[in-house]
């Protein structure tokens, strides 16, 4: 994905492809390194981990921001943190992949073919249905425009959204209660914050149509996971397309792994060739620049 020569000619590089979930295991793994290059939130680096990595002097992270790094602790410990550019297109595209897969039961129908069967479900036609976009930022605005191209009635709501701002993005503003009750497909595009954490809970899910679909490619904790599972089990909503979870990787045996009305993917919204090309190009450049400044030429 990138030319690593500016780094490999001056430093030994070790790559890990498995997840270290235990803090002690993670610290033992990272103790020998001056620089750690992490993929988004795949490897959280809280204060209690950073304080034990006494050799660590730089963290390079993919993406423009990484909420799983304790930035205050890094600054106090003299650890430089860098980010990279990125691309929102991959997340926009995966969102629509999950919407379409959920609406047309693509996983179940593909599995039926693989097992020697034929049609087993009736899909949901999106034309003239209501697309509810929760958050009209860079991603949500593009989701709204694509929804309109599918012939959907696009509505939107978020805490700070105004009717004029919604109209500029090609959507129709609805008050909170009406928004959840109206959407046939509700897709989440907010940043995770204390205000958005748990924003979609049992009450919001109960207000949705029993035929509605929920899609989340933003961050897991925006949706109350236990409430979502309960709503899917009871039929309060028809199904969900989920790329993000409270705990990642999703634990073995977790209900969202096996529920028939869930299409789940392993947080791959940003996992695409162009985004990765930007991530690794910028990451190599940031590490090389740090090496230059620290006498490693």
UniProtKB/TrEMBL annotation:
Coiled coil: none annotated. Pfam families: 2-Hacid_dh_C. GO terms for molecular function: NAD binding; oxidoreductase activity, acting on the CH-OH group of donors, NAD or NADP as acceptor. Residues 97-269 form the D-isomer specific 2-hydroxyacid dehydrogenase NAD-binding domain. It comes from the Bacteria. Belongs to the D-isomer specific 2-hydroxyacid dehydrogenase family. This is D-2-hydroxyacid dehydrogenase family protein. It comes from Mycolicibacterium hodleri.
